[in-house]
Amino acid sequence: SFWMSPAKSHAWVITARGLARVDLPAEAEIRARVQAFRDYLIAASDTPLDEAPPAKAMAAMMQPLCAKLAGATRIVAVLDGPFHDVGIDTLPCDGRPLIESASVEIAPALWILNQKHEPWPGPVNALLVGDAQQVTPEFPALPGADAELRSIASFINTGKANIVRGAAANPSAI
Length: 174
What we know:
alpha/beta; 3-stranded antiparallel β-sheet; 3 helices; globular
């Protein structure tokens, strides 16, 4: 969870091992680094992530946070301020985008993690596409995708969920 302020900002990391605070720069400095990093991403530069100056500046700022996230396979981020302006999963950790080492989700607030989720009250039709097969080595199958599909389908109380998975989960299915 991020908390921005004019003088000093923080990230709070909650794991099975406990709670840790990571100090970050002031919001204005974070905003400038995020904007430069976002511009680098949009420009689709050929400069590798670990060599591009905006990415290096962002990585230096993120390093203490990345150290606390080491070994995590699932990250739920609660964003604040300028972090809304960039895909949090693209942020560099250890020379590569965060998404390459962990599944990254965004939550509007930490309290949502503790809420009981009820099915939608009325009739719902849904097309759920996921749990695709691995096509190339750089895009492996996502662990837990089948369970996620089943979980989403359980909220649809009418039985009108069309679930497309495996080899059928491809662009032509939509």
